[in-house]
Amino acid sequence: MKTIRVENLSVAYRGKIALQHVNLELSAGKLTGIVGPNGAGKSTLMKGILQLIKTQSGKIFYGEEPINNQRQKIAYVEQRQDIDLSFPIDVLGVVVFGTYPHLKIFQRPGKQEKKLAAECLEKVGLSEFSDRQISELSGGQLQRVFIARALAQQAEWILLDEPFAGIDATSEKIIIDLLKELRDEGKSIVIVHHDLHKVTDYFDEVILLNKGLIASGPVAQTYTTKNMEKTYGSEIAQTMRVGGVDFAT
């Protein structure tokens, strides 16, 4: 499995630094969380990796190749607020979109692609919703549909931007259990995440950001009080500890 390597990534919006000189390697076959305070550059890092935004500097590699040469091997699930839920498309149609990177120009999805999409919907437990309009789904169901789309893309990596925002605890558990299952089957998964209580339960590795890379690596080595003080400030980190956040020692 190939890693994703970030070299000297910097991003600015309207002259203000959003991310500065990030050097990072994302481990393959892991469930990795991107954590940091609001405005720390978490979503910016993900979009910068995918070359979805203009960067000031930086190179991104998939294995030893520039990431743009391997873009179809990486699926991206954007924040729900960025999705036009009024678009008239049913659930199966959304998942079929995942097959497009493997089609030739002007080629339409056929029976094989629709069969694959149906299998991916079954994988995420939503076969009975295939004919529903996406506007009729709950937030948790919608996230699972987009995970199915990533599976239909036959992506090796799945990058999700705050997939648990605005969904109930039951749906969150269904989704994280699904993502852990996909990791165990060999997928590499990266999640922008904000609930610090869940980091040790959810992730194998964690990336701590605050407009630059604070630390990254296995949760047991990286998610420490010292690193969280660097990321959030000593007073906030102490408050989080009192509030029951389980940092590594």
From TrEMBL:
Residues 4-236 form the ABC transporter domain. Signal peptide: none annotated. The keyword Membrane does not apply. InterPro entries: AAA+_ATPase, ABC_transporter-like_ATP-bd, ABC_transporter-like_CS, Metal_Ion_Import_ABC, P-loop_NTPase. SMART domains: AAA. Keywords: ATP-binding, Nucleotide-binding, Transport. SUPFAM superfamilies: P-loop containing nucleoside triphosphate hydrolases. GO terms for molecular function: ATP binding. This is Metal ABC transporter ATP-binding protein. It comes from Enterococcus hulanensis.
